[in-house]
Amino acid sequence: MIKVLLVDDEELIRAGLRAVLDAQDGIAVVGEAEDGAHALGLVRSLRPDVVLMDVRMPGVDGLAATRAILRGADEPPKILVVTTFEADDYVYEALRAGADGFLLKRSRPAEIVQAVRLVAAGGSLLFPAAIRRLAAARAGRAADGGAVARAGLTDREGQVLRLMARGLSNAEIGDRLHLGVQTVKTHVSSLLGKLGARDRTQAVIAAYESGFVTPSADGD
Description:
By secondary structure, the chain is of the alpha/beta class. Helix content is about 50%, strand content about 15%. It is built from eleven helices and five strands.
């Protein structure tokens, strides 16, 4: 059973998400919070697998709550930021802080369910083109080359990271580089460790910010 915590200051939004998720086999909404401060206590007591986190709330917003949750738990839940607007600095900073992806409030029910199942299974929402656009808009802002320059990636790991930035799955990367899926997974795990990235989303953001990947070269 995938346990989900809903965090949103709008009761109507929480009710809609609960109706969608509780109707699914293998998913249960175990709690609701109206702000980030309330969410912190519920994460500790309910130990959800996935948190759907509104990014803009009064008091403790979703960005601050995401940082606090990921900093304060040995095995933190997966966090999906829920937002009205995809081109939002709050969303981008939440992804940089370790959120596993984001959902638009206008997402279809099937998309919401798929996202919850995906992140609960250890995947990232890789990659709506919107995440790439958020990262690409801030490309090259690390003057010293950033995390990628310091990470000491091998040539193969660099190739894998560039293809990740284009939104390719492990299987697609394997096809492109003529590698087995397990080998690709090994390279991904290694480069995440070298970058100090929690997941693929953070790794790709680092690649853009460092200038290792540029918008003109990402295939869009």
